Amino acid sequence: MRLTTKGRYAVTAMLDLALHSDQGPVSLSDISNRQGISLSYLEQLFSKLRKSVLVTSVRGPGGGYRLSRLKEDIFVAQIVDAVNESVDATGCSGRSDCQGGTTCLTHYLWCDLSDQIHDFLNQISLAQLVAREDVRQVAERQSIESQQTCVDDKINAAIIG
Amino acid sequence: MRLTTKGRYAVTAMLDLALHSDQGPVSLSDISNRQGISLSYLEQLFSKLRKSVLVTSVRGPGGGYRLSRLKEDIFVAQIVDAVNESVDATGCSGRSDCQGGTTCLTHYLWCDLSDQIHDFLNQISLAQLVAREDVRQVAERQSIESQQTCVDDKINAAIIG
DNA sequence: ATTTACCCGACTATTTTAGTAGGTTATTCC
DNA sequence: GGAATAACCTACTAAAATAGTCGGGTAAAT
Ligand code: FES
Ligand code: FES
Fold first, then answer.
1. Distance between CA atoms of B140 and B124, rounded to whole angstroms?
2. Cα–Cα 20 to 30 A to B89, which of A80, A157, A158, B44?
3. What is the pLDDT of residues B87-105, one digit of tens each?
4. Is residue B34 a contact partner of residue B142, using CB atoms and an 8 Å limit?
5. Average pLDDT estimate for B23-39
6. Which PROSITE patterns does this chain map to (chains A, B) (predicted)?
7. CB B18 within 8 A of CB B127
8. Tens-place pLDDT, residues A3-51
């Protein structure tokens, strides 16, 4: 089982998308600014999210990404699965063969754990996350900060130009 | 969060120890033979398990390792914690600072997940695992195989000698 | 004294992660 | 039409973690 920044970034980016989904397509550079994730890295992640049909893209100016279905119908487990290979805790990917072709002593334990994690993450939708008070607070702070950054950029542009 | 062969090996080895705990100290080479884990690697893992006081060692011929307390009082989470740094799903180790010193959007989600995993693994004792039918079956098969290996070794020794 | 088996530190190949670089294609606004 | 925008794509890379190996110790039993 692996849950690293790859999966965490993907969920964070999707949540950002859900938070701003009412304002039309969201560009990756917006997400990059708000969430502090490298733009190139986001592109890689969204390539996978698009292949798993969790998002749809709109090209050209004013374009970006959109959730491909309702916030209520996208679950955290699906996002992690899309970028990580899976939330699988076994060493055999369910094949029961990690000890030279045969089942190891702890195979069933890791199967149970995998189910546990999957059930948990599969019952949390983006809509639920958006509704959480703690999430809203962080989102509001980021909104203020990114506006500030936007103003800073304009000042810098004015100085340079 | 990371759960790789390191943690899985540790739990497997401890379970092997629990299964043979009535026969006096169990040597690492026995565990290595039965579970197909490299001896040198087992030594590294048991060094950590010993520092976490999950096992006690007996040196010299006939020596090996013993569980430092009852099977009922050793839980999977403790074993994984001893060799892995922890079953922590956050990127900030609970410090709430993974986005340049501030809390990221998904911090609370990963905290919840960590709790979920920890609660699950912390309620499973070695005694419970030993009692499971699926575990007993694998253990029995390994017991037969390792006896066969033992006979093979004697035959090889006889041929060489 | 010798064997057994734990103990310890350093070293290494492989894999994964996290990120960079540099370009191409589609769309919109002027 | 042309410039700007932003998705799309491939390949490369530095750093870290994993999964070991190797070589020598030290304590205890026969
Ligand atoms: S984890 Fe499935 S056989 Fe070992
Ligand atoms: S995971 Fe804790 S702040 Fe991001």
1. 21
2. B44
3. 788 888 888 888 878 899 9
4. yes
5. 93
6. HTH_RRF2_2
7. yes
8. 888 899 999 999 999 999 998 999 999 999 999 999 999 999 999 999 9
Fold classified for B5-85+125-160 = Arc Repressor Mutant, subunit A (1.10.10)
Q: Which nucleotide is nearest to B55 (CA to C1')?
A: C6
- Nearest C-alpha in A relative to B136: A105
Query: Residue A152: enclosing H or E segment and its boundaries?
Result: helix A133-160
> Per-residue pLDDT tens for B75-88?
999 999 888 767 78
- Window 19-58 of B, Cβ < 8 Å to A: 35-36
Given its phi and psi angles, is residue B79 left (phi above 0), alpha (psi -120 to 50 degrees) or beta? alpha
Cβ < 7 Å from strand D, B residues 14-53: 38-41, 43-44
Checking B140-148 for CB contacts under 8 A at 24+ apart, the result is B141/A102, B142/A105, B142/B34, B142/B35, B143/B34, B145/B34, B146/B30, B146/B33, B146/B34
Q: Which residue of B has its CA nearest to A139?
A: B105
Q: Tell me the whole-structure pTM to 2 decimals.
A: 0.88
Question: In angstroms, how far is CA A154 from the centroid of its own chain?
Answer: 29
Cβ B1 to strand C below 7 Å = no
Q: What share of chain B is helix, strand, coil (3-state, %, to 5)?
A: 60, 10, 30
User: What is the token pair recorded at A156?
Assistant: 């810098």
Residue A90, classed as helix, strand or coil, is coil
